[in-house]
Design a protein that fits this description.
It contains twelve helices and eight strands. It has 352 residues and is α/β, with parallel strands linked by helices. The chain is globular. The relative contact order is 0.14.
Length: 352
């Protein structure tokens, strides 16, 4: 049998909280044409004439609030996930980041050097978006012919509605849901609303048809908003959360154009100000590992906004991180991948 391995891919992180390192990270991240998808001259103007002049120092201060003695929380959690999964699986488990180190190119090069011929790629993004899952896959196939031309890639598809993922989310939230709370807000990373329309080749469904995300359509296979709504409804149904006790919002917007609404920070302020919600739970299902967007933006800034607006209790349910049910889900996919490849090499008909 060919030598095989697993490659986990996460978003990425600066090397340190130094402004220069944060600037390097932001330059690579925001310079990605699938993140800021404007024509090159406009993207470069936004990046170099505006963003990189002021944002690195501000972002570096945010990272300092969450940074561990050992390094970046996102990298540390991804490495811990690698170790925990490796304890369960015989295949070598490698990690890479879409931005900064360990890079996708370096990971593929290492796999090639080790004689690996087949790789199961596992992007740690439950939902499809141009700026997340799509950019990872594009980067892998951009680097593959240059650094690892002999490697075959099979990839885990977005898993936003898979029962194992929903069960892992439920298991991770169960102890919080068993305590008294007034409302739970499901906060997802935002994207420009324009990205949804851009992903709809029919030009007549996304953000155009009434209740587009609740109306079945093939477009939903690449529609981030529809997938976030589906994930939320599946969690709510599994947990038995009443419809009046939950909401959906989108965080981390960038720039001045409209992003998916409602905005999380505005929901925190509204819920606190209206006075009906005193005890708030927040869950961030789009993030596999806790990171700047959950640890600083939600746990720190979000909590402050809600409490200052009149709320009394605020808790963010941790991301899946290394929860046993999450490990179960990932392990099963690796085992299914192995079965598929072994049957393919045995000459059996394989339905993927």
């Amino acid at each position: 049998m060919p030598k095989r391995a697993v490659l986990l891919i996460n978003l990425g992180t600066p090397r340190s909280t130094e402004v220069s390192d944060v600037r390097d990270y932001l330059e690579e991240f925001l310079g990605d044409r699938r993140v800021i998808d404007a024509p090159s001259p406009i993207r470069e103007y936004i990046l170099y004439a505006k963003t990189l002049r002021t944002r690195p120092a501000k972002t570096a201060e945010a990272y300092k609030k969450i940074w561990k003695d050992e390094g970046s929380p996102l990298l540390l959690l991804t490495e811990e996930l690698q170790r925990k999964l490796q304890e369960r699986i015989s295949l070598p488990i490698h990690i890479a980041m879409r931005y900064q180190e360990p890079s996708i190119a370096s990971a593929l090069s290492q796999l090639q050097a080790e004689g690996v011929e087949e790789v199961f790629l596992m992007p740690l993004y439950p939902h499809y978006a141009m700026s997340t899952y799509e950019t990872v896959m594009a980067k892998v196939y951009e680097e593959l012919p240059k650094v690892a031309p002999n490697i075959r890639i099979d990839a885990l598809r977005p898993f936003y509605k898979e029962p194992g993922y929903i069960e892992a989310l439920y298991d991770s939230a169960k102890e919080y849901l068993e305590k008294p709370y007034d409302f739970i807000l499901f906060s997802y990373h935002g994207i420009p609303a324009r990205h949804l329309r851009k992903g709809d080749p029919s030009n007549c469904h996304c953000m155009r048809a009434a209740n587009c995300c609740e109306t079945p359509s093939p477009i939903h296979e690449v529609c981030y908003r529809a997938q976030c709504i589906r994930t939320t409804h599946d969690i709510v149904r599994r947990a038995g959360i009443p419809k009046e006790k939950f909401g959906i919002s989108f965080q981390s917007r960038f720039g001045k154009e409209p992003w998916l609404e409602p905005y999380t920070d505005q929901e925190f302020e509204r819920l606190g100000r209206e006075g009906k919600v005193k005890r708030l739970l927040v869950m961030c299902p789009a993030f596999a590992c806790d990171c700047l967007e959950t640890l600083e933006e939600i746990q720190m800034e979000g909590k402050e906004i809600f409490l200052e607006a009149g709320g009394e209790s605020f808790e963010q349910i941790p991301c899946l991180n290394v929860h046993p049910s999450w490990l179960d889900f990932l392990q099963k996919h690796v085992e299914d991948y192995l079965t598929m490849r072994e049957e393919a090499h045995a000459g059996k008909t394989v339905v993927v």
